[in-house]
Amino acid sequence: MANQANLYSFPAVDALAPALRAYVISCQEAGLARHGVFKVAVSGGSLPKTLAQALIAEPSSPADTVKWDKWEIFFADERAVPLDDADSNYGLLKTELLDKLPAGTPPPTVHPISADPEVLADTQELSDQYEQTLVRSFAGRDSVRLPIFDLLLLGCGPDGHTCSLFPGHELLRETDAWVAPINDSPKPPLSRVTLTLPVITHAVRVAFVATGGGKKDIMKEIFEEESGLPCALVNSLCGDRCSWFVDNAAVEGISYPRRPFSL
Ligand SMILES: O=C1O[C@H](COP(=O)(O)O)[C@@H](O)[C@H](O)[C@H]1O
Questions:
Q1: What pLDDT band is residue 141 in, cutting at 50, 70 and 90?
Q2: According to the UniProt entry, where is the signal peptide (predicted)?
Q3: What angle do CA 169, 175, 177 make, to 5 degrees?
Q4: pTM of the predicted model, to two decimals?
Q5: Which value, in Å, is the radius of gyration of the alpha carbons in the chain?
Q6: Distance CA 244, CA 191 (A)
Q7: pLDDT of res. 139
Q8: DSSP state string for 166-209
Q9: Contact of 29 with 150, CB cutoff 8 Å
Q10: Is the complex ipTM higher than 0.90?
Q11: How far does residue 23's CA lie from ligand 1's centre (Å)?
Q12: Is the pLDDT higher at 121 or at 26?
């Protein structure tokens, strides 16, 4: 299974969470060694809740510490809604995770995708502005072809979409932009912005989290068929830089080999 995506399966989320934590902390330490900060982008959907379960726990040792003040948090995708809207991925991360950090935790730096109502109405402008945010953080586009995130934490929709990249959508062929708008999302809301496939597959590490029996049909397509689904494209382009943290229910009946989790 050299250079193929790692599939780590756990009986339930309770067992998945500590492994996910260990993995994120190892990516954090690698990022800190590389450039003194940890640059991570996160998805919305079911991910923030599982992430909170993984990360908001007392460290079991100094090496198990989440160094929040060293984190720069970006968004893998966002819906074109105000940040306090129930559909906002930023809003979700805030409610599920950021607001639950213990009092006195030195806060991470968070880069939401715009709060300006005028910009929200123009998704091209919204993505251009977020791309500029990335340019400022990752150096100018003149000096880097693509930003290199230390880690992307992604979800997998029941149709195999990830970020706001949907099956068969023309955005999957984007080769230039770092961030792109979508105004015909098959899943509401219609208007969103997303990191593009070249940015996703350029990250140092990519981790998917997928749980529950509702994901098992699409997981079979992703791992066992030539589906061309967005999640499958990430798998084939990232190889073993990509790891899946799933519960047994999500991979029931799938023969793709699971790996015992280790760092
Ligand atoms: O719309 C979205 O859905 C995906 C998958 O969500 P899930 O609830 O099935 O985990 C999510 O990763 C993405 O960020 C979000 O915008």
A1: low
A2: none
A3: 95
A4: 0.97
A5: 17
A6: 28
A7: 80
A8: -TT-GGGG--S-SEEEES--SSSSS-EEEE-HHHHHHSS-EEEE
A9: no
A10: yes
A11: 21
A12: 26
Q: Are strands 242-247 and 6-10 parallel, antiparallel or unpaired?
A: parallel
CB burial of residue 241 (10 Å; 0-12, 13-18, 19+): middle
Calculate how far, in angstroms, residue 46's C-alpha sits from the geometric centre of ligand 1: 7
pLDDT at residue 1 greater than cutoff 80: no
| Nearest residue by C-alpha to atom 2 in ligand 1 | 45
Give the residue carrying structure tokens 């640059």: 39
2 pLDDT exceeds 60?
Answer: no
Q: How far is the CA of 214 from the centre of ligand 1 (A)?
A: 13
Judge if the beta carbon of residue 185 lies within 6 A of ligand 1.
no
What is the reported pLDDT for 261? 96
| Minimum-distance ligand 1 atom for the alpha carbon of 78 | 16
Q: Which residue has the tokens 């720069």?
A: 72
Cα separation, 239 vs 258, whole angstroms:
15
